[in-house]
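Escalated from tier 1: alpha-D-glucopyranose holo job.
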Amino acid sequence: MFGSLKGHREQDHTIVIEFERKNVLIEIIEPSIVHFFAPIATERRASKAVENLTVNPGVFSVDLQNSQLVIKTEKLLIHVFDEFVVDVFDTAGNRLCADYRGSARPFVRRGSGEGLEVAAEEGHKLEAEKHRLKIQALKKMEKDMFFYGLGDKTGHLNKRGYHYKMWNTDDPSPHVESFEAMYKSIPFFISLKEKQAFGIFFDNTYESVFDFGKENDDYYSFGAVDGNLDYYFIYGPSVKEVVGGYTRLTGTTPLPQLWTLGYQQCRWAYTPEQRLREIADTFREKEIPCDVLYLDIDYMDGYRVFTWDRKKFPDPEKTLKELKDQGYKVVTIIDPGVKKDKGYAICDEGLKNRYFAADKDGVPYINKVWPGDSLYPDFSNERVRKWWAGNQKIMTDTGVAGIWNDMNEPASFNGPLPDDVTFNNDGVLTDHREIHNVYGHYMSKATNEGIKNATGQRPFVITRACYAGTQKYATVWTGDNQSLWEHLRMSLPMLINLGLSGIAFCGTDVGGFGFDCTAELLSRWVQVGAFTPLFRNHSSIFTRDQEPWAFDEETEAINRKYIQLRYRLLPYLYDILHDEETTGLPMIRPLLMHYQDDPKTYEINDEFLCGENILVAPVVGQGERARMVYLPEGNRWVDFWTKGIVEGGQYIVRDAPLDVCPIYIKEGSILPLYPVQNFVGEKQIKQLTLEIYPPEKGRESNYVHYQDDGSSFDYRSGAYNLYRFSALRSEDGSIRIRLEKEHAGYKMAYESFKLVLHHMKPSRITANGELVAFEVFKNQATFKIADLADVRIEI
Ligand code: GLC
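Tier 2 regenerated the structure:
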């Protein structure tokens, strides 16, 4: 396609390479991030994921040597050959990623004629997907290569051996490993081999495919039905650095409001108003913390978005105000489909201003969703995004605290949208094939902007469909799972891979959406939910109740226990998301992210790290009352429940009665904790608790804690406090703990600190030289100090 290499020119950080038949671009974004672009469909590229890119190429050189171009950055060595064949090495010459020299050789599916017909008659789905790829890159597969990322795909953590498709899909049948496409399209993956990691972000919004050696073990590949060959190579060598690089390109999740980390209760549907209030009252009566209640589609008047059914909610403003007084924030669903209905303001306005996607003749396109015949706002048009953003005020003025964007793949009940439905694409007219995968992305962007403009607070948007970069605008959930043990199991790799794909704030429907939950399944699911960023219980219409009290006393007590634990952990979780705003590191992480030198972590599907300090090994099988836990090598671990110390680098068997989720704290951790509250803001937190798991002798551990008002953007102009806590353990076993402030900008600073010191029986404690009273219970010392201090603990 490209022909032989003819020459090159440099323009700032861009190298234009001239081939016989086509010029291509290589941009050095950073020493370890390189962008490859071959214009196939369009000369110009307009990424929908990468905005406001900062380019820091460092020093690099370009040389033509024996008819190959050699590009050297401070981190990478790139060889470019005829036909735009590219090999990438690290600076020591280790090959990281090389173009495969042969051509594609898909495996054979055997069987023909009558055999296929009778199998199809029985209901077997035998149609192999035909992808008609216009763009394809084949890369040489190496032994021991592991693959991660790709957003919310089903299956396991490591994607080697599988094939996936990026085409946002709403399929409510039970999600299983054989699903190639899901609700989200995040065309980004990470490869890990012999402790070296790199990522590839294929920035193409058309239907695209990824094959990690399913087709043939000699190569892995990515390709698309149209668009350009447009991808970024992001070098590690650590997975952390790859995720950091990817989120510098596509953005990180902005720090959310603190209450969004509280427990959230959803249901299709809490209507009428009386039912919603019943739910609200029950949480408070039973002292089960809850911050957020959801209204699903039934609150609307005939499913018309931005309206209320006045029979079910006669006075929504009053209802929402009273719920707010009880500490609740109400989030309402808003789907994209606008009911085709003359006299309905949103429809009339949209038609008048040509805000809807149109068929090839310019006639507004109609398909069916909940309201019946519906129109699809063209969110790829900035004017439409502004209009949609403005509409959010209708909801926020009523007291709505956040918006839930659903059905934005976009879903359609009357067959898929035809390819030729036209979209404005910010002035460069295109069709459905290019916009489909970014429809939800643009909808979230508009919703986010609207809430921000209307409230001035950090917006809370939750979306089902997304593309790379949507993390800047919304949190996501994994769509219509079911109350199945397999879906609880699968939620872990799905959420971990979402986190590795830049989506730091994500969750699954706790308890499962479709089908009927059981007491045991809910008990185990809430144990996972407590450690996932978005902690929302949701279930479908016509399924059995699934609130924390819906089963028996034991289940209710287990729900209370883990939801309360979540509220104690809030400052820790908030710290993770604060760090994430700059590092891009998610809350829920695979063990390999912090233990990349330990290959035993590479395929652990059923354990995860919540931040760096907490390892969660939940039970995800019915009837299981013990499980094997792998504790990674490199440090020791403290059993959260028994406080027993366990060496890393081994498999252990941990008892796990129904109310116990095995949790391990990394030795040396300093964990900030809040008291239990029924909702965020119920108590004014004047005292911070610090649980200290002392480091080994001779070691020091550090923890940085962040505090702000939890809701506004004032932190961006300095209205926050940053504390640094450190614990240094001497050879004689004594400990020096320092509580210092690195930044003082938020006026409601803590007035005191409660320290809980594990594995210590001190003889004397002083703070700034003054004696401090303390209590010892079992193997744990507790004491309070009035302010920041230099604390010495002698044994
Ligand atoms: C979709 C959503 C689900 C919601 C339902 C009704 O199935 O995924 O969460 O409850 O629509 O709005």
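The domain at 684-794 is CATH 2.60.40.1180 (Immunoglobulin-like).
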